[in-house]
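Why does residue order matter? Because the sequence determines the fold. Keep that principle in mind as you read this record.
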Amino acid sequence: MTIHRDPSAAFGTITFEGDPIRWMEGSEVFEKPRQQRSRDALGRIIVAALKLFSESGFDATRVADVAAEAEVPVGTVYKHFADKDALLAAIVEGYRRCRMREIAELCTSEAALAATPRELVELHLDIVFSAFTLDSGLLRLIERRRLEDPGTHHDQSAANEIVAGLIADRLVEKLPERDPEELRQQVHYAHSIIRGAVVWSELPAGGEMGRGLKITDMEFARQALLMALRYLRIPE
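Structure:
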């Protein structure tokens, strides 16, 4: 992964890990099976569940549907997961752990440490746009669930704090003349506002129908960048 992007392209160019099986590596769920056959079956269950939860919705998907898609007996799903909620929780935990590691690596890389304030703001937006470009189905599901589930809301809020904090750390280093606490607060506000617009652009199935709110639109990227730079008082 790199922080450098084509300035003529929309945000959303970071190549985050897209294989859900790789997300789960090192997790307790994947450490339990000793036989390769069991691990292969578990991998198919994870892939099938993510596909169906994203496409059909969590509530509409039954454990039997996941088993059929994964080509395993229903009992095999229950062997690894107590219920459908436990299956989703394992996927989300693995996904979030993988993404947070990747984002931390980006924001503490040599390129990030050498970046200008504007480049850091571009990196920030690219992280947000890239996540929703690659993971729109799962993130749409997470955002819907956080409206009703306090645990999901808490975990997603904590992840947002970490991402904004990583960018704020770099900007505080680059802008020593600015009040560090005020700058950190501004970065968090900018993150919440722009990410909120991106969430709404993806939350309805098929995306936002209104003009100018599609993450693939160049104008959306341009205006989001201008808003962030002006609010953070960073030269355009």
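The mean pLDDT is 89.
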